[in-house]
Amino acid sequence: MDISYLKKQIRDYIRDNSLKYCEIPYKIYKIKEKIIELQKMFILNTHQVIIQNEFNGLYINIVSNNCQMLQYIQDQTPEICLAALKHYVCAISWIKEPNQEMFLFMVGSTGLSLEYVPEKNRTLEICLVAIQNDGSAFQFVNTQFKTPEVYLAAVRKDGFNLKYIRDEHQTIEICLAAIRNNGKSFQFVNTQCKTPEVCLAAVQKNGMNLRYVDRQTPEICLAAIQNSGLAFQYVNTQCRTPEVCLAAVQEDGMNLCYIQDDHQTIEICLTAIRNNGKSFQFVNTQCKTPEVCLAAVQKDWKNIWYVENPTQELCMIAVQGSWKILPSIKHQTPELCLLAVNINGESLKFIREQTQEICLAAVQNNPIAIQYVFDRYKSVELCLAAVINNGDMLEYIPEKYQTQEICTTAVQNSPNATRFVAS
C-alpha cells in the first residue's frame, strides 16, 4: 500500500470526523489501524520513510481537530501534547508523562486547573502563574508555597482570597491590598489588622463595611456614609453626632428614621425632607414647625396626612398636588374648593358645602360633574354648560330643566343623547 494513499486516508478521516462525536469510536479505530500500518511501513519500507516530524504534524492535526484523540496516540511528544492542551486543558489527563512546561501552559490558560496538577508537580512558579490567571486558584496552592509574596499576589488578583489566609498570616499590607481589590473582603480581616487606616480604607471602598468596624470614629462613620447612605444604620450611638446625622440625611433622607427624636433638629429634618419627601413621617412633633411642614408638603403632597392641623396654605398646596386629597381635609374653604374644581371638576363629589359658583366652575371644567351637583344648585345655565361639552350628560338633567335649547344642544353634540330626552 502506498504511503501517500494512507496519508490521504488519515487526512480524510480527520476532515470527516471533525467534532462529530457520534462517529468518534469508529473513526478512532480506523485512524489507529492506519497509523499502526503506517508505522510498520516506516520500519519495513525504508525507501518510503516518513520522517518523525511529518508524523508529529499528522498527530498535531488530529488532536487539533479532536483533542480526545490524544489518548489513542502512543508516541506522544511535547508538541503534540501542547497542541491538545491549547484546545482543552483537561487533556492533561490523557498525557502519559506530563512535564512542567505542560503544567505551566495549563495553569496559564486556566488558573483553576491548578487543582488537577499533582502536588509533587506544583512549584512556586506554577502556583503564581495560576493565581495571575485566576485569583481563585489560590485555594489550591500547597501550604509550603503560601508565603507573604503569594498571599499578596492572591489578594491583588482577587480580594476574596483573604478568606483563605489564616488570621496569624494576615498583615496590614495584605489586608489593604485585598480591600482595594474587593471592598467586601473586609469581613475576613482579623481583629488585630482592623486598624483605623484599614477600617477607613474599607468604608471608603464600601460604606456597608461599617458593620464590621468594632472601634468606630466620627471620621470613619462620615467616610462610610459618604460612600453609602445606607451605612448610617450601623453607626453606633456614640458616633451619631449632629455632623454625622446631617451627612446621613444628605445622602439619604430616609435615614431620619434612625435618628432619635432628641437628636433631631430643624436643619436635619429640612435636609432629610429636601432629599426625600417621605422622610417627613419620621419628623418628631417638636420639629414640625410651619417651615418644616411647608417644605414637606411642597416636596410631596401626601405629607399633609402627617400634619395635625394643616393651614389653608398647606391644604392649597396639597390640592394642587392631587385633588383626591379633598376628603381628608376637614376645613374646606370656598377658595380651596374652587381651586380643586378648576383642577378637575370631578372633585365636586368630595366637596361638602357646594355653591353656585363652585358647581358652575366644576361643570365647565368637567361636564361629568353635573351628576354630583346638589339639586338645589341645578339651573338651566348649569345644565346647558354641561351638555355643551358633553351631550350625554343629559342623562343627569332633571326633566324640569330639559328645555328645547338644552335638548337640541345635547343631541347635536351626541346623537345618542336622544334616549335621555324626557318624553
Nutshell version of this structure?
The protein is mostly helical. It has helices spanning 3-16, 24-44, 52-65, 78-87, 100-109, 124-133, 148-157, 172-181, 196-205, 218-227, 242-251, 266-275, 290-299, 312-321, 334-343, 356-365, 380-389, 404-413. Helices cover 47% and strands 0% of the residues.
Structure description:
Residues 19-26 and 43-51 have low confidence and may be disordered. The radius of gyration is 42 Å and the shape is elongated. The protein contains 18 helices and no strands. With 423 residues, it is mostly helical. The longest helix is centred in the first third of the chain and has 21 residues, at 24-44. Helix 5 (100-109) packs parallel to helix 6, helix 8 (172-181) packs parallel to helix 9 and helix 13 runs parallel beside helix 14.
Write the layout of secondary structure elements.
Layout: H1 3-16, H2 24-44, H3 52-65, H4 78-87, H5 100-109, H6 124-133, H7 148-157, H8 172-181, H9 196-205, H10 218-227, H11 242-251, H12 266-275, H13 290-299, H14 312-321, H15 334-343, H16 356-365, H17 380-389, H18 404-413
Helix pairs in contact: 1-2, 1-3, 3-4, 4-5, 5-6, 6-7, 7-8, 8-9, 9-10, 10-11, 11-12, 12-13, 13-14, 14-15, 15-16, 16-17, 17-18
